[in-house]
Write a structure and sequence with these properties.
GO molecular function: 3'-5' exonuclease activity; DNA-directed DNA polymerase activity
Number of strands: 17
Number of helices: 30
InterPro entries: DNA_pol3_alpha_NTPase_dom (IPR011708), DNA_pol3_alpha_thumb_dom (IPR041931), DNA_pol3_finger (IPR040982), DnaE2/DnaE/PolC (IPR004805), DNAPol_HHH (IPR029460)
Protein name: DNA-directed DNA polymerase
Largest sheet: 5 strands, mixed
Strand content: 15-25%
EC number: 2.7.7.7
Strand order of the largest sheet: 3-4-1-2-5
Mean pLDDT: 88
Structural class: alpha+beta
Low-confidence stretches: none
Number of domains: 6
Catalytic activity: DNA(n) + a 2'-deoxyribonucleoside 5'-triphosphate = DNA(n+1) + diphosphate
Distance between the termini: 75 Å
Length: 737
C-alpha cells in the first residue's frame, strides 16, 4: 500500500514570492506585489494575465528596476514544478510489494511510502487507485451529539426522520452557516430559490451546484415550482428523469437511459459513462454508433437518437454520481437537523472543530448574534479547552425560555485553546488543575498552581487580552504589566515545592499568607479602543464590545442603519442608506464579464457582519481607508436580484467615522473630584482643538450642587478624547451631554 505523489507548480503568486526572496527584495514589497495578483482557485490567472489586467503591477515594474527583474524571472519560471507532495486522499493497493511495480518516494512528512507516478500514470502502471475521504463534519456531528447528551437527550443519527419541518424551514431560509456542503453564498441563494421540501431535493442540490450543472439550476427551480413545464427528451425515458424534472443530473441516469433506449447492458452502460467523461474521440465515435443502432432497434428515429446522445455526452462530462451525492446530502441533512433542533450544541461543536481558524470563528460569532445565542468570554474558571455549552446567565426578572425554544436557555462559553498563541497543552494543564483542586481564587493562586514549564509570559498576556482573567482581575492592563512578576512567582513556588520548603509568604500551616504577598503594580486600565484592539489581536474578532459602541450618539444622529436592519429587516431594495462598520478586511477582484476591477469590504457592526462592493471610481479612496479595525460610514445602495433573496450592497461614498466625529456639534462634560487632573486635561484637549464641539468642566460641591466651567474654543470631541480623559486620576466621568 502507498499514497500517491502530487507535484506543486509555481503559480503566479508563489513564483513572485520565491523569486523575490531569492533576489533579496524586501518582504513588504514582494507581499504587496503578490496581493495585486488575483487569487481565485476556481479561475487562476497567470502572471502575464495579472500584469495585463492590473495597472499597479505594470507601474511597479516600470518604476523599480529590482521589481522588473523579479517579475521577468518569475515569468520565465512560472508553471515549473516547485515541490513534491502527497495526494490528500489517494491510495494504491497492490497484490505484491509495490516496489516491484512502480518507483517509490519517501515523503518526510508521511510514514507511508508514496508512488513516484502521479494519479494519472499510476493507474496506467496497473495499480488500482482508491480515494479515502475523511470528513471533519463527522467529528462535528459526534461532538454535537456529545453536547446534547449532557442534557440527557440521546440522538441516533441513523434513525432521524428525513422529513423534519424545522430542518426544511432552515434550508428554505438559506440559514446554513456551518451546514455541510450548503453554506456558501451561492448555495444559500439556491436554497432560498428552490425551497427544498424533501430529501431528494438536497441530493439534487449537491449534484447541481458545481461547474457545468449550475446552468440548469434556474430551470430546475422553475420546474419544481410549476413556473415552467417539464419537458422530457423522449417519452421512453420520462420515468428516469421524472424525479429531476426532465433534467439529467446523475451519472446513473445516463446509464439507465442507455439501457432503456439503446439496449445497453450494465457493463456497456458503465463503459459509455466513462467514455463520455474522458471525451476520447475514437471511443466516443464507437459508442455513438452503438447507441444509434441500439436506439434504432427500439424504434427511436436516428435524428432523435443523435440528439439524445449529444445531450448525454454534454452532461456526462460533469455529471455527478447519485450515490455520492446522496451520501453528502445525508451528512448535510444531519448537520441541518442539529442546527435547527439543537442550535447551541451544534454551533459549539462547529466552532470547536474550527478552533484554529479565527476567520471562521469570527463568521460563526456573527451567526450566533443572528441566532440570538450568547457567546461568553473565555474564563480560566469556567472555560474548557474546547467550546462548551452552559446555561445562560439569567437576570433576576428574566422569564424562563419558552417551551419548544431550541436554544433552551443555553449559551456557549469561549474555548481557552481558541485564544491565539496559548497552545492546547498549556490550557489542558490549567483546566486539569482547576478540576482537581477547585477554581482559582486570584492571580496569585493561579500563578502558584500552574506549571511554569508549560506556560509563559506571552500566553498570560494573550489570556489577559482575551478577558480570560476578568473574573480574577478586571484591569487587563494590570495583568499584562504584572505577567513577568507572575511568572517569577510561579517559578519560585514550583522550586519550593520541589525542594519541600515553605514560602516566606506562607502562613504557619503552609497555606499562602495573603497579607504577605507582594502587591501587583498599579496600572491605569486600557481605554476602550486599546482594550478592543488587544482583544482583536488575541481572539481574532471583538468579543466584549464593538468599536462602534463608542460612536453610538453620532450614529443615532446620522440615522445609520444596522447590518441586521438592512440585510434581514424591512425591504430597503432600491434605496440608499447610511451604514457604519469596523473594517475586517478589504480585497480587490475583477468582474467576469467586463474584467473591471472592484473592491470588497468585509465590515461588522454590533448586529453582525456585511460585505460592501466598491466600484472603480471609488477604489483610490477605499485603498486609503482600508485599515483593519478602522470605523467608517458608508452611503450604501441596496439591491436585490429578482431571482435571489440575498442583499447586495455597493458603496456610493465612504468616510472615516473618526473624521465625522471630529466635526459633530456636541458637548463633553468632564466631572472632576479635585484639581489633580487639570494639567493633563489641558494637555489632552489641546491636541483636539479645531472641531465643532464644546467642553465643560463640572466640579461637585461638598454641600451639594456643582460648578460648571465652559472651556474656551471648540474641540474635536471624539471617542479617543473621551477615553483619554475618562481614564485620568481625579476624573469621575467624561460623557457626551
Amino acid at each position: 500500500m502507498a499514497q500517491i505523489i502530487t507535484f506543486g507548480k509555481l503559480q503566479a503568486r508563489a513564483v513572485l514570492r520565491d523569486v523575490g526572496r531569492v533576489m533579496q527584495q524586501p518582504y513588504p514589497v514582494t507581499d504587496r506585489l503578490c496581493k495585486l495578483v488575483p487569487n481565485n482557485p476556481a479561475d487562476p490567472k497567470t502572471l502575464a494575465e495579472a500584469i495585463a489586467g492590473e495597472a499597479r503591477l505594470r507601474e511597479a515594474r516600470r518604476e523599480d528596476p529590482l521589481t522588473a527583474q523579479v517579475i521577468d524571472r518569475a515569468l520565465q519560471l512560472e508553471g515549473l514544478y516547485r515541490h513534491a507532495s502527497t495526494h490528500a486522499a489517494g491510495v494504491v493497493i497492490g497484490d505484491r510489494p509495490l516496489d516491484e511495480l512502480v518507483p517509490l518516494y519517501r515523503d518526510p512528512r508521511s510514514p507511508m511510502p508514496v508512488t513516484q507516478f502521479n494519479m494519472k500514470w499510476v493507474e496506467q502502471a496497473g495499480l488500482v487507485k482508491f480515494d479515502f475521504l475523511g470528513l471533519k463534519t463527522l467529528t462535528v456531528l459526534d461532538y454535537a451529539i456529545h453536547y446534547i447528551a449532557e442534557r440527557g437527550i440521546r440522538i441516533d443519527l441513523s434513525s432521524l426522520p428525513l422529513d423534519d419541518p424545522k430542518t426544511f424551514a432552515l434550508l428554505a431560509d438559506g440559514d446554513t452557516a456551518g451546514v455541510f456542503q450548503l453554506e456558501s453564498t451561492g448555495m444559500r441563494a439556491m436554497l432560498k430559490g428552490l425551497k427544498p421540501d424533501k430529501f431528494e431535493d438536497i441530493i439534487a442540490i449537491v449534484a447541481l451546484y458545481r461547474p457545468g450543472p449550475m446552468e440548469n439550476i434556474p430551470t430546475y427551480i422553475s420546474r419544481k415550482h410549476g413556473k415552467e413545464a417539464v419537458i422530457y427528451p423522449h417519452a421512453m425515458i420520462a420515468h428516469i428523469l421524472e424525479e429531476t424534472y426532465g433534467i439529467a443530473i446523475y451519472q446513473e441516469q445516463v446509464m439507465q437511459i442507455a439501457q432503456v433506449m439503446a439496449g445497453y447492458s450494465l457493463g456497456e452502460a458503465d463503459l459509455l459513462r466513462r467514455a463520455m467523461g474522458k471525451k476520447i474521440a475514437a471511443e466516443m465515435d464507437k459508442q455513438r454508433d452503438r447507441f444509434i443502432s441500439g436506439a434504432r432497434e427500439k424504434a427511436v428515429p436516428d435524428e432523435k437518437a443523435h440528439e439524445i446522445f449529444d445531450l448525454l455526452a454534454k452532461f456526462a462530462g460533469y455529471g455527478f454520481n447519485k450515490s455520492h451525492a446522496a451520501a453528502y446530502a445525508l451528512v448535510a441533512y444531519h448537520t441541518a437537523y442539529l442546527k435547527a433542533n439543537f442550535p447551541v450544541e451544534f454551533m459549539a461543536a462547529t466552532m470547536t472543530l474550527d478552533m484554529n481558524n479565527t476567520d471562521k470563528l469570527g463568521m460563526f460569532k456573527k451567526e450566533l448574534v443572528k441566532m440570538g445565542i450568547d457567546l461568553l468570554r473565555p474564563d480560566v474558571n469556567a472555560s474548557a479547552v474546547h467550546f462548551r455549552v452552559e446555561k445562560a446567565p439569567m437576570e433576576k426578572d428574566t422569564p424562563p425560555p419558552a417551551a419548544g425554544d431550541p436554544k433552551a436557555g443555553l449559551c456557549i462559553r469561549y474555548a481557552l485553546a481558541a485564544i491565539k498563541g496559548v497552545g492546547e497543552k498549556a490550557m489542558e494543564q490549567i483546566i486539569a488543575e482547576r478540576t482537581a483542586h477547585g477554581p482559582y481564587a486570584d492571580l496569585y493562586d493561579f500563578a502558584e498552581r500552574l506549571d511554569p514549564s508549560l506556560i509563559n509570559r506571552r500566553q498570560i498576556d494573550h489570556l489577559a487580552a482575551a478577558g480570560a482573567f476578568d473574573g480574577l482581575e478586571s484591569n487587563r492592563a494590570r495583568i499584562v504589566e504584572a505577567s513577568d512578576f507572575l511568572m517569577r512567582h510561579a517559578q519560585a513556588t514550583m522550586a519550593m515545592k520541589k525542594s519541600n520548603q515553605t514560602s516566606l509568604f506562607a502562613a504557619a500551616d503552609g497555606s499562602p499568607d495573603l497579607d504577605q504577598r507582594p502587591k501587583l503594580p498599579t496600572v491605569k486600565p486600557w481605554d476602550s479602543a486599546t482594550l478592543l484592539a488587544k482583544e482583536l489581536s488575541a481572539v481574532g474578532f471583538y468579543l466584549s464590545a464593538h468599536p462602534l459602541d463608542s460612536y453610538a450618539t453620532i450614529l443615532h444622529h446620522y440615522r445609520v442603519k444596522s447590518a441586521a436592519e438592512v440585510t434581514s429587516g424591512p425591504d430597503y431594495a432600491g434605496m440608499t442608506v447610511k451604514m457604519a462598520g469596523a473594517i475586517e478586511s478589504y480585497g480587490e477582484r475583477r468582474s467576469r464579464v467586463k474584467n473591471r476591477p472592484f473592491g470588497v469590504f468585509v465590515l461588522s457592526d454590533a448586529s453582525g457582519g456585511f460585505e460592501v462592493m466598491v466600484f472603480e471610481d471609488g477604489l483610490d479612496n477605499a485603498r486609503i481607508l482600508a485599515e483593519k479595525g478602522a470605523p467608517v460610514v458608508l452611503d450604501v445602495e441596496v439591491r436585490r436580484r429578482p431571482d435571489d433573496d440575498a442583499v447586495r450592497l455597493s458603496a456610493k461614498s465612504i468616510i472615516s467615522l473618526e473624521t465625522i466625529a471630529e466635526q459633530v456639534e456636541s458637548v463633553l462634560d468632564i466631572v472632576i473630584s479635585d484639581a489633580r487632573p487639570l494639567p493633563e486635561i489641558k494637555s489632552q484637549t489641546d491636541h483636539f482643538k479645531g472641531g465643532r464641539g464644546r467642553i465643560s468642566l463640572i466640579v461637585p460641591l461638598s454641600g451639594g450642587g456643582d460648578v460648571t466651567i465652559d472651556l474656551a474654543g471648540y474641540y474635536r470631541v471624539t471617542p479617543a478624547l473621551i477615553d483619554a480623559l475618562g481614564g485620568l486620576d481625579g476624573v469621575l466621568e467624561a460623557v457626551n451631554a
